[in-house]
């Protein structure tokens, strides 16, 4: 007779995500996962596969919870530039927050740690980045069509610049004790939209 799971796989996945996010992939051992999740190694393997598969599932869960909100923020009807400015300022505030300093962004952390040598992680990073850059681009195209953005501006190039800024804010916010560094950079980038 098959045994039923004695744990909630979804709760375990969220717990693994939290641990990987805080410590990184390489610094998290299977023993750490067993202790943190409170479930046996065999149950982890049976439910999620290897540590690497668990990490990729954690990335997928992170993307499910983070990426959709950005699209909603940037696709509201009406003027587009205020939404773009609000998103950049939100990213800056998050990067400078105590949680941002503690953990950074899970995708940005993965990009730095795994993407250069892990094709599966790199694909997920790229997909996540597209979910940031594409809505920014769409909002800037809309802003230009509505007369909010000068005609001589390139919405694609601006979206890419803002995307790279957002990633940089996350890195600097995690490593810096000076929140003004992040806020000042964000405001200077936003000045390019005028």
Short description:
This protein has helices at residues 9-23, 30-37, 41-48, 51-74, 81-96, 98-103, 106-113, 119-145, 155-175, 179-191. The protein is mainly α and 194 residues long.
Look at the helices and sheets and give the structural class: mainly alpha
User: What's the end-to-end separation, in Å?
Assistant: 68 Å
Low-confidence stretches: none
| Shape call | elongated
Radius of gyration over all CA atoms, rounded: 19 Å
The proportion of residues in beta strands is under 5%
The main sheet comes to: none
Look at the structure and give the mean pLDDT. 92
What is the subunit organization of this protein?
A: single chain
Helix content: over 70%
| Order of helical and strand elements | HHHHHHHHHH
Figure out the total of helices. Answer: 10
Number of strands: 0
InterPro entries: Homeodomain-like_sf (IPR009057), HTH_TetR (IPR001647), Tet_transcr_reg_TetR-rel_C_sf (IPR036271), TetR_C (IPR011075)
Keywords: DNA-binding, Transcription, Transcription regulation
Protein name: TetR/AcrR family transcriptional regulator
Domain HTH tetR-type: 6-66
């Amino acid at each position: 007779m098959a045994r039923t799971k004695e744990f909630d796989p979804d709760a375990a996945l969220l717990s693994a995500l939290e641990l990987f996010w805080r410590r990184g992939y390489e610094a998290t051992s299977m023993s750490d996962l067993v202790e943190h999740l409170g479930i046996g190694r065999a149950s982890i393997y049976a439910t999620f596969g290897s540590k690497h598969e668990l990490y990729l599932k954690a990335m997928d869960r992170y993307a499910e919870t983070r990426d959709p909100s950005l699209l909603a923020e940037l696709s509201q009807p009406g003027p587009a530039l205020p939404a773009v400015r609000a998103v950049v300022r939100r990213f800056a505030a998050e990067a400078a927050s105590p949680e941002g300093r503690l953990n950074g962004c899970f995708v940005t952390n993965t990009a730095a740690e795994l993407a250069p040598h892990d094709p599966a992680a790199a694909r997920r990073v790229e997909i996540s980045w597209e979910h940031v850059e594409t809505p920014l681009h769409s909002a800037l195209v809309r802003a230009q069509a509505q007369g909010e953005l000068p005609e001589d501006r390139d919405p694609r190039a601006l979206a890419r610049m803002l995307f790279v800024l957002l990633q940089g804010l996350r890195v600097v916010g995690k490593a810096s004790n000076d929140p003004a560094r992040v806020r000042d950079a964000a405001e200077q980038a936003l000045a390019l939209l005028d």
